[in-house]
Specification:
Blueprint lengths: L1 H13 L1 H15 L10 H13 L5 H26 L1 H8 L4 H14 L2 H6 L8 H8 L4 H33 L3 H28 L3
């Protein structure tokens, strides 16, 4: 997996003009049911953050491409849920994934459209939320609003550790004080994301 992500970083660095589009595809696929479970999105985003620090990608470009991919992927999953209907979708798509489905349903019932934002940090349960929102006939505008507004926050939180780590390596030789400050900031972001995910997992325990 690490070598695969390293190869992806190399390809993106050698084809900087297409790097944003590559990130768009990965963040879109991450939001889709079944396919999303196979995408190592955390590793991809950490590598993307490092590319931003190296100047291969402009930060605004990376955030916009990744946010657009996440929002489009959510919209596709939502429309799948609307089109398939509850029973049929459960029978065809959720076979063998009952526990993840139960956790996603619980989050949706408790928090409504806010579950769209929270689900981005739930790992394997994440792709289930948009399709469940469609199955439950959640209002389209409220779903899209929650998806679009939460996407950049999620993107920045995943890009930041990779960016800070890469910047830390660059600054270590010139200014150790700044390097240490960046390292502490990166550690704080990672710890905060871990605590948030842990808290959500406890709340969703079934």
């Amino acid at each position: 997996m690490e070598s695969w992500i390293a190869d992806l970083s190399r390809v993106a660095a050698e084809n900087a003009g297409f790097a944003g589009a590559i990130l768009f595809v990965f963040t879109l696929l991450e939001a889709l049911l079944v396919v999303g479970l196979l995408v190592p999105i955390v590793g991809v985003m950490l590598a993307a953050g490092a590319l931003v620090a190296q100047g291969v990608l402009h930060p605004v470009e990376a955030i916009l491409w990744c946010s657009a991919g996440a929002a489009v992927g959510d919209a596709i999953s939502y429309l799948m849920g609307r089109g398939l209907g509850g029973r049929r979708a459960s029978r065809l798509l959720f076979a063998g994934k009952r526990r993840l489905l139960a956790r996603a349903k619980l989050l949706t019932r408790r928090h409504g459209v806010l579950a769209i934002a929270a689900a981005r940090y739930l790992g394997p349960a994440r792709p289930f939320i948009p399709i469940l929102a469609g199955m439950s006939r959640t209002r389209g505008w409220s779903f899209q609003l929650a998806s679009v507004l939460s996407a950049p926050i999620w993107v920045i939180s995943l890009l930041a550790p990779g960016y800070l780590a890469a910047r830390n390596l660059q600054l270590l030789r010139t200014d150790p004080t700044i390097a240490i400050a960046l390292a502490l900031a990166a550690a704080g972001l990672i710890a905060g994301a871990w605590l948030l995910a842990r808290r959500m997992n406890r709340a969703l325990a079934v």
